[in-house]
Design brief:
Shape: globular
Strand order of the largest sheet: 3-2-1-4-5
Radius of gyration: 17 Å
CATH class: Alpha Beta
Number of strands: 7
Structural class: alpha/beta
CATH architecture: 3-Layer(aba) Sandwich
Mean pLDDT: 88
Order of helices and strands: EHEHHEHHEHEHEEH
Distance between the termini: 46 Å
Number of domains: 1
Helix content: 40-55%
Strand content: 5-15%
Low-confidence stretches: none
Length: 232
């Protein structure tokens, strides 16, 4: 008897989570998605994630059969207590330690807790996230060491083993583009360019080769440099 494998992916609608979604749909039999609205400045991603999901369903019928519920969690209280460039209309800067002002303290840790609570109720023990150590902005909650510690606490606290999959953990942005192409070819690359959103400022009024954005924030800079390296 073949048992159905299930996973829940933290899906923001950005390049990384779109690539992780494709990876999950190739690996698992049943996928649910979850998005978090924390009053982020780039809240346009909440609409883009719907479009990406819709386009994936339309363009990949074999994946559509595996895609199930999409959960939306209201974490507006996180935005209210976070004085950052992702939750306030303020300039993106670096502090004395080199940490960008886009760092939302505890964000990934909170995301993991809420995701595990949903997964527990849904009979799922595998979580998937787009966290990355290789090409990130210095966020301490993207480090594998941090994530492993949090997952251990979650498993102990729920008295059930939970596993976090991070398929992009050690990939550069260029390698992430290559992984997307390998998983879904030009169809997936086109969806990422046209419909995903990563820009911290929420700009979608100008399209570049790599997609839409302000072309100046750290997220756009990483995405553009990754695209340039990928297309050389």
């Amino acid at each position: 008897m073949k048992y159905e494998t299930k996973a829940l992916i933290m899906f923001s609608g950005g390049q990384d989570s779109a690539t992780c979604l494709a990876w999950a749909l190739e690996k698992y039999d049943y996928i649910e998605t979850v998005g978090f609205n924390y009053d982020q400045r780039h809240s346009v991603e909440m609409e883009c994630r719907k479009t990406v999901l819709s386009k994936v369903r339309l363009n990949f019928p074999e994946w559509n059969k595996k895609l199930s519920y999409d959960h939306i969690i209201d974490l507006s209280s996180l935005g209210k207590i976070s004085d950052t460039s992702l939750t306030r209309n303020m300039e993106i800067t670096l502090n004395e330690e080199g940490l960008p002002s886009t760092f939302v303290p505890g964000r990934n840790l909170i995301f993991l807790n809420f995701s595990a609570a949903i997964a527990y109720r849904r009979g799922i023990n595998i979580l998937i996230g787009g966290m990355c150590e290789s090409d990130f902005s210095g966020y301490p909650d993207c480090r594998k060491e941090t994530l492993d510690a949090q997952m251990k606490a979650i498993s102990l606290g729920l008295d059930k083993e939970f596993i976090l999959e991070t398929p992009l953990m050690y990939l550069s942005k260029s390698e992430a583009w290559k992984k997307a192409e390998k998983l879904g070819g030009k169809r997936l690359i086109d969806i990422i360019i046209e419909d995903s959103h990563s820009c911290y400022k929420g700009h979608r009024n100008k399209r570049y080769e790599w997609g839409y954005g302000c072309n100046s924030c750290p997220a756009c800079d990483l995405r553009a440099k990754g695209w340039s390296s990928y297309t050389k």
